[in-house]
């Protein structure tokens, strides 16, 4: 069966993200395994006065969380019937940044990745629970990526999303300009075909702030992310 790793956001945890994301019933309906890893920051000394309770991820190249997520995949593959050509990552907010870091550092494991309201993994971010100095992204191969943003997200805004997706389009050697389309729930810019038959998409969901969307918009987002991921297998 395909495997999806779903990464939570900052000041959250695996159990909370399972509840809000809707991936568990979606996985049951679409016949894949979903796992919710938890960021390493829970086990590190944090500033007790920062007002944030929960977990976060280490985004830098080769971080302990990169190694942790590799080990999560290996453990699940050792104990469950996993199609190793169909292992995917999808995260929200800081989890979206971590998902992109896995595209940078673990393209030998993940067929492709998606990010909902996550920023550029190469940029410094001193405001995180674990301040990230920024580090490079050099995937071992071209890898397909979706960068999805909320239209009115004040934290990971569409302007930053455009800059981020342009980086991925450049890494994958995508032709310009992208093909643009609109629908009831938002707009899509599709780049491709890129090198090695990869693709990059930039999706903006209408009227969404920094949150995992509920209702029909949430279903639309899950459908779009999963359909994109499932179309790709590990070379």
Structure notes:
The protein is 31% helix and 18% strand. The protein is α/β, with parallel strands linked by helices. The chain has a single domain (3-231), classed as Alpha/Beta hydrolase fold, catalytic domain (Rossmann fold). Strands 2-1-3-4-5-8-7-6 form an eight-stranded mixed sheet, sandwiched between helices. The chain is globular and about 45 Å long.
Number of helices: 6
CATH structural class: Alpha Beta
Give helix % range.
Answer: 25-40%
Across the major sheet, the strand order is 2-1-3-4-5-8-7-6
Q: How many domains in all?
A: 1
- Approximate strand percentage: 15-25%
Unreliable stretches covering 5 or more consecutive residues: 43-53
Provide the residue-averaged pLDDT: 91
CATH architecture name: 3-Layer(aba) Sandwich
Write a concise keyword list for the protein shown above.
Poly(3-hydroxybutyrate) depolymerase, FaeB/C/D, eight-stranded mixed beta sheet, hydrolase, signal, alpha/beta, Rossmann fold
Question: How would you summarize what this structure contains?
Answer:
This protein is 31% helix and 18% strand. It has six helices and eight strands; from the N terminus they run βααβαβαββαβββα.
């Amino acid at each position: 069966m395909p495997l999806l790793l779903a990464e939570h956001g900052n000041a959250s945890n695996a159990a909370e993200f399972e509840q809000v994301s809707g991936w568990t019933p979606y996985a049951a309906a679409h016949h894949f395994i979903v796992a919710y890893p938890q960021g390493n920051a829970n086990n590190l000394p944090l500033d007790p006065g920062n007002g944030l309770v929960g977990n976060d991820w280490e985004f830098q190249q080769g971080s302990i969380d990169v190694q942790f997520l590799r080990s999560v995949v290996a453990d699940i593959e050792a104990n469950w019937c996993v199609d190793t050509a169909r292992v995917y990552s999808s995260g929200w907010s800081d989890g979206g940044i971590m998902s992109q870091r896995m595209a940078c550092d673990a393209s030998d494991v993940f067929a492709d990745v998606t990010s909902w309201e996550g920023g550029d993994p190469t940029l410094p971010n001193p405001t995180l629970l674990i301040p990230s100095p920024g580090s490079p992204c050099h995937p071992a191969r071209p890898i397909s990526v979706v960068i999805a943003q909320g239209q009115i997200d004040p934290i990971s805004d569409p302007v930053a999303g455009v800059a981020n997706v342009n980086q991925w389009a450049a890494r994958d050697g995508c032709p310009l300009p992208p093909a643009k389309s609109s629908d009831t729930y938002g707009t899509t810019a599709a780049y491709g075909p890129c090198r090695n038959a990869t693709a990059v998409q930039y999706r903006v969901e209408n009227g969404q702030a920094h949150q995992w969307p509920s209702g029909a918009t949430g279903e639309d987002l899950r459908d779009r992310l999963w359909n994109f991921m499932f179309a790709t297998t590990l070379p």
